C-alpha cells in the first residue's frame, strides 16, 4: 500500500505542478479533468445502488461551472451552476424523470465541480499561483503526516463508524504539520507577506492558513468516507494505485480549495 502511494505521488505530483506552472488555462483544463473523473466516479457509485443521476447534464454542468470560474470568477461559477440546475429540471420535466435523481445530479455538481472551481478562481487572484500551490502543499502535508503518525503512533480511533483507519494522533499531526510548514513558507521573500506585514504577522497568517487546511482536509476525507459507507463501496474507483479513484485522492482538496480561496481573498 505504501509503495503504491509513493509511486502514485511520484507520477501525480509532478503532473499537477506542470499544469499549474503552464498557466491558468492549462491549470483550468486539469481542474476540469479532475472534476469530470471525480463526478463520473460519484455517479457510478450512485448507479451501483440503483440511483439514476443524469451523467450528461452533470458533466456538461461541471464544465460550465469551471469555465465560468475561469472567465468570470465567482459570478461565472454561480451562473454555470444556475444553468445546470435549470437544464436538469427541464430535462426531468420533459422526460418525466425522478426529482430525486435530478437532485443527486445537481448535488454531484455542487459537491465536486463548484468546490474544485475555487482552485481556478484562486489562481486568478493576486499571487494566485502561490495560493494554489500552498493549498495543495498544505493538503498533501496534512494527508501524509496524518497517515504516517497514525500508522506509527496512532491508538485512538477518530471516527471508527465512518473511517476505521483515522486516529486522533494522526489527525493532530495532520493539523499541526501544515500549520508549521505554511507559517515558515509565508516568511519567504517571494511572497508579499513578510515585506508588507512584517515577520510576526506573516508567520501568523501562514500558521492560520495551514491550521485551516489541516482542520478542513480530514473533514473532506470523512465526508467521502461517509458517502462510500452509505453506498457500501470500498473505493470510488481504481485509477490511482494505492488510493483507489480520483475522488479518493481529491476528496480533501474538494474542501480545502474552498477555504483556501476565501482565506487568500481575505489576506492578499
Can you walk through the features of this model?
- By secondary structure, this protein is mostly helical.
- The protein has helices at 2-22, 24-47, 55-95, 99-123, 128-153, 168-185, 193-197, 199-231, 246-267, and strands at 157-159, 163-167.
- It has 2 domains: 1-124, no CATH class; 128-268, no CATH class.
- The chain has a two-stranded antiparallel ribbon.
- A hairpin with a 3-residue loop joins strand 1 (157-159) and strand 2 (163-167).
- The model has no long low-confidence stretch (mean pLDDT 91).
Helix content: over 70%
Distance between the termini: 39 Å
Provide the residue-averaged pLDDT. Answer: 91
Number of helices: 9
Enumerate the spans where pLDDT stays under 50 for 5 or more consecutive residues.
none
Query: Quick one: overall form?
Result: globular
Structural class: mainly alpha
Radius of gyration computed on alpha carbons: 19 Å
Order of helices and strands: HHHHHEEHHHH
- How many runs of DSSP E, i.e. beta strands? 2
Give the tags.
268 residues; mainly alpha; 2 domains; 9 helices
Question: How would you summarize the topology of this molecule?
Answer:
Layout: H1 2-22, H2 24-47, H3 55-95, H4 99-123, H5 128-153, E1 157-159, E2 163-167, H6 168-185, H7 193-197, H8 199-231, H9 246-267
Antiparallel strand pairs: 1-2
Helix pairs in contact: 1-2, 2-3, 2-4, 3-4, 4-5, 4-9, 5-6, 5-8, 5-9, 6-8, 8-9
Short description:
With 268 residues, the chain is mainly alpha-helical.
